[in-house]
Amino acid sequence: MEVQAQGPLSCLQTLREVTDQEHNVVALKQAIKDKEAPLRVAQTRLYLCSHRPNVELCCDAGQFRLVSEVEELNMSLAVLREKLLEAEQSLRNLEDTRMSLEKDIASMTNSLFIDRQKCMAHRTRYPIVLQLAGYQ
Question: Which residues have a Cβ under 8 Å from the Cβ of 28 and sit 6 or more positions away?
């Protein structure tokens, strides 16, 4: 009976974890989307800075700052994408765990049904071990 009570509880806990992980995946996707716009702006500014007409190509402080900003944004996006991959893998693992728990619960429920409904009727007809041994 204790195992039967723990099954749904662990399934509920897994469902909560799945929900939390789904929210985490959505938040990471939004963070990636929010970082892409500033990256495009910085890349455009850097491109325009390097292709000025009638101006000699020079490396000034503004251009160095744009280059470092693009590098920072690219690194930030790479970290966010890596976290997103990890979160999605974790979500798949949690879904597999949930499916496994649901199958186990269904199997236990079926086993208990068979034991109580089908086998118990046969057990009540047979004498107990003490009666067979002649003690009662």
Answer: 80, 83, 84, 87
- Determine which helix (DSSP H) or strand (DSSP E) holds 98, and give its type and residue range: helix 61-113
Residue with token string 């909560």 = 16
Q: Give the other-Cβ count within 10 Å of 62's Cβ.
A: 11
**Backbone dihedral angles phi then psi of residue 55, each to the nearest 5 degrees:** -130, 135
Tokens at residue 133, please?
A: 């041994």
The predicted-structure confidence for 40-83, as pLDDT tens digits, reads as follows: 999 998 888 877 777 666 777 878 898 899 999 999 999 999 99
Which position has the higher pLDDT, 119 or 80? 80
Q: Which helix (H) or strand (E) holds 15?
A: helix 2-50
Q: Please determine, for residue 136, whether its predicted confidence score (pLDDT) is greater than 70.
A: no
108 CB contacts (<8 Å, ≥6 apart)? 3, 4, 7
Distance CA 37, CA 65 (A): 18
